[in-house]
What we know:
Layout: H1 32-37, H2 53-59, H3 63-73, H4 78-81, E1 87-92, H5 105-123, E2 126-131, H6 137-147, E3 153-156, H7 163-174, E4 179-181, H8 182-202, E5 210-214, H9 218-230, E6 234-239, E7 242-243, H10 253-261, H11 271-275, E8 280-283, H12 291-294, E9 301-305, H13 315-318, E10 322-327, H14 342-351, H15 359-372, H16 391-405
Parallel strand pairs: 1-2, 1-3, 3-4, 5-6, 5-8, 8-9, 9-10
Antiparallel strand pairs: 6-7
Amino acid sequence: MAAEIVNPRTGTDSAHAVNGADGTEGAFPIDPVFALHRGGKMEVTSTVPVRDADDLSLAYTPGVAEVCTAIANKPELVHDYTWKSQVVAVVTDGTAVLGLGDIGPEASLPVMEGKAILFKQFGGVDAVPIALACTDVDEIVETVVRLAPSFGGVNLEDISAPRCFEIENRLKERLDIPVFHDDQHGTAVVTLAALRNSCTLTGRSLGDLRAVISGAGAAGVAIARILIEAGIGDVAVTDRKGVVHAGRDDLNPVKRELASYTNKAGLSGSLEDALDGADVFIGVSGGTVPESAVATMATGAFVFAMANPTPEIHPEVAHKYAAVVATGRSDFPNQINNVLAFPGIFAGALQVRASAITEGMKIAAAEALAAVVADELSADRVIPSPFDPRVAPAVTAAVAAAARAEGVARR
């Protein structure tokens, strides 16, 4: 007989919970995933007691009026006397959810709730899921700008490319709080950290490497940018039609800009063509790379095949040719997981009330993340586990210090 599963919030047991993906109920043993999600994965709790009339008069009226008046007279006090500097809005329109695609705002909520509890679990940061019933860029920007007074930062999540680039850029221009598209920059930070440690392990430097990125969406573009900022030798990015280069006439504005600062070698042709002699493969696109193409990579290559659930190059194949192999999955070594980055990045930014998250702060996060396991490196350990308790404090401290150095800290 299946073990009874009880949701601690609802008290629901296995005889009265959802049985399957169709949302039906009945008296059958259930999928524990549905049991865990029933009623949602988070709640709001107070940080002060309301036990009697005296507590009520302090927490609410009339006492609260004193705090409101003080903030009205000196707006920066909002950071000290509300939750603003400790809370992030996790904003999506549901158009690019995990590997599920455009499933809409309601269906995105389980993922956004999950993101919020990861913020709290791994960074001590409160977060609120906000799923928007609009996909127009102007409408999303205006909505987030109007919500911003309640939050210390905005984490954009699962918004499809290329709209995600414009949304992030426009919000950065209009808001004086950190705006961070995690699908782009979280992935980029963790990738850079793993690549730095792979170089250290094999006695190489970033400047020695030529990388090929499969995927010119949000993650691929951000990875290319951070690798160039960090000093990689060269990087080429590919999409469904092959290498992104300036000679193509089918590029959108984001890819045209990408072509202007990548691919110094002037490559063209397919992904397989670009892999010939390459030192690094970074996959953020899905699909399958033929083993014959992997075999043409340089000796001692690095393969980061991060598509989920099916890596572009299976680790069994990659290990035949590569010195270091990483994936996006937790059941293989070297998981490139955004949770290693975003909680600490926001914790550091909020700690110093940063007005933005800069490239320097992202690189500092990657360096701190790499340093966590610098004395423990092996081919199966170039990046720490998300459950390593050293991760968030290290990233938080590095990001806060970088924010001060770059002049975006306000305390």
